[in-house]
Design brief:
alpha+beta, Ribosomal Protein S5, domain 2, Alpha-Beta Plaits, 2 domains, 7-stranded mixed sheet, 4-stranded antiparallel sheet, 11 strands, globular, binds L-homoserine, ATP-binding, ATP binding, Ribosomal_Su5_D2-typ_SF, amino-acid biosynthesis
Amino acid sequence: MIRVIVPATTANLGPGFDSLGMALSQYSIFECEAADDINIEIEGLEADKLTVENNLVIDCMNRLFEYIGNYPKGYRLKIINGVPLARGMGSSAAAIVGGLMSANALMGFPLEKEDILKLATEIEGHPDNVAPALLGQLIVSTQTKDGEIVYQTIKPFEDLECVLFIPEYEVSTSDSRGVLPKRISMADAVHNSSHLALLVMGFANGNKDLIAKTMDDKIHEPYRKILIKQFDDFKEAALNSGAFAFSLSGAGSTIIAYVSKENSENVCKSLQRVADESNLEGKAVILKPCTNGAICEIS
Ligand code: HSE
């Protein structure tokens, strides 16, 4: 039996639009074994919203079989979803990485992780969620003009925790990308590139003060805020209750606060209070950075 475990991810972390992402301690699981025919079961979080007919995990498995030019006779696959859909927590990245890694294991590991990252980025369109889903930790990544995926991994500092408010309502990535401007000003481009460079240094050095000063975005969050209920209230509550930084998680609808471990309970209560006071359904949760990324167990 092949068992692939893939973490949720948060992307962008403010100014790192499409280039910065971090793996989180919440997981989808994919169990797979060779069989004579194809049999697929779907369980777990929001499983009623997932179908076998239109399924990213299965599409990615087929993509890998096509890529290596070799197809199995059949397989049994159980998807145990653990990442909420269309909330900005990397559900599609988890499905892509889960499908590719399951198919790779089923065929005897013909591809290396770097090949899987390239395929996953082609499917997702940008590497910011798929890279940490596959490799774990905080990853800054890009695709060069030659098509190469270049990335650097940063180990999150010891007492970093994340408090997320995961609303019941969904925001599709296409809607959230649809509100973005076609062009940005030179001033906003300079703001983001300088803030991102310093933010990455802040994470690399565990410098919370630098992270606090530089997690500020001007090219996507200001436009996306219209889709995100109580964004400003959540931000104010998080920063006033002990978080040192705050961002939209990926394309939303989840928001995420970055905290030192000793403040996470307080920030969690504070975010839940904002939601309760505005009758917004959803749940505040505390997650840790996931350091190992996707793992594949064979039993
Ligand atoms: N970087 C992506 C975005 C993440 O913000 O649209 C969601 O796929």
